[in-house]
Amino acid sequence: MSRQSALLACVMLLAAVAWGGERREQEVRLLFTGDILLARQVQVEMEHRKLSPWRDFAGEFGRADLVGGNFEGALGVAADCLPRASPCFSTPTSVVRQLQQAGFKTLTVENNHAGDLGADGRQRTVAALREAGILALDFDSSPQFLRFGKFTLAIVAVNTVAAADGGVQLIPSPAIAQKLRLAQQLANLVVVSIHWGSELVDWPNGTQREQAEWLVAHGADLIVGHHPHVVQGPECVGGKPVFFSLGNHVFDQKYPLTKEGLIADCRITGDRLNCAGLRTHTRSGSSIPAIAAEQPPIPALESCGATLRPDLRIGATTIKPEAWSRGRPTKGLMLEGWRRGKVEWRSRRQEIVSLQVATFAGSQENPLLFTLERHASPIDHEVGIRPYVYAVGERGLNARWRGSALAWPLLDAVVDDDGSLCALHRGDSFIALDPSSSSIRLARYRWNGFGFAAEDAAPTESCARRWQ
After folding, report:
1. CB 227 within 8 Å of CB 161
2. Are residue 285 and residue 328 in the same domain, yes or no?
3. 172-202 pLDDT, tens digit each
4. What's the number of domains the chain is made of?
5. Do 303 and 328 belong to one domain?
């Protein structure tokens, strides 16, 4: 082979890797730590020793594409603590710079101490972290989407331990199911960061196991848990890695087991996610961790992983979510239509609650896009979940059904296996609205090409199982 031919072959090979094989060849490394406290004695130690808690982690964090953790507390002063917040983790705003310099790209702020300083403290914490370029993720803003080359990651934050301001989520619930449905439709991989379990208990309880099974069944590919303050051994649940508790990362507790931590060390290679654990140790009398000298393998994770979902495609269009970026509005989501490797259109920003590709029974059309969106009614101004149906064209989304109400106030709706619309309604009616109503009813609808018609037939068994 001539020198010119060899050079040409080399150039073609590099081009093939860059353009055709990016997803297959690229490795993405994700690190998730456990609980991070930067108040109380941790604050005292940092100020006294004048050093960062992450002085020994620059190498590992620097080699990761994403570093995340669970931030315990809220930014503000002790005078703002709610009476019910005991202990109250009021944290100085100066820690944001340290978190940024350490390399954190995302922090969940959905835990039992996120509300220690009330609504103002929550908002101040989220705003300060995002201003520093750190994605501060709570339940209301979940899921958020991050992009690494052609790969899209979704993260959902959940808290099952009541905060001082009452913030808590229930599993199972339609709200969490909606977020997971949206995440798995638009992302190749779905991570759930969850605050759960019993403090200082080094094994997962029965409720955690049940919740893990439900989360995996509804779309979670990786679960990273926190709150017990001690490590609970990772397991493979439904074929997916579950870190029940990563323990403490930076904390001032003195019980020996609280000095041991675990970092979920997950890598995406080709179309596969595999995880391991990076153990940490904090010496007695300190709150600053170091990478442990011994790193024993975790057998439960050796043959456990997740296969990435394919991109969402309708016809020749690939639909992707707008990726999170610093300064982007926190409310609403913009969809992007990709063709031939570039963005052809962007939708308007809207508060999308759920999304599905819909092939309705009896319809001869190409698959449609069924969404649930949160809008205020122009009649009674009540903000509620409303269904939309879109056709996907070369220039964007064409609305076929614009959120008109179904028979009763809507809680959730999915396109069922038989192509009908399965809807979960509140028990009240539009004539006598009662948003506090605890009663529910199921209904089934058929798409007639320009709207939904209620059916007299009872919901199918698969429909009824959706919200069990």
Report:
1. yes
2. no
3. 999 999 999 999 999 999 999 999 999 999 9
4. 2
5. no
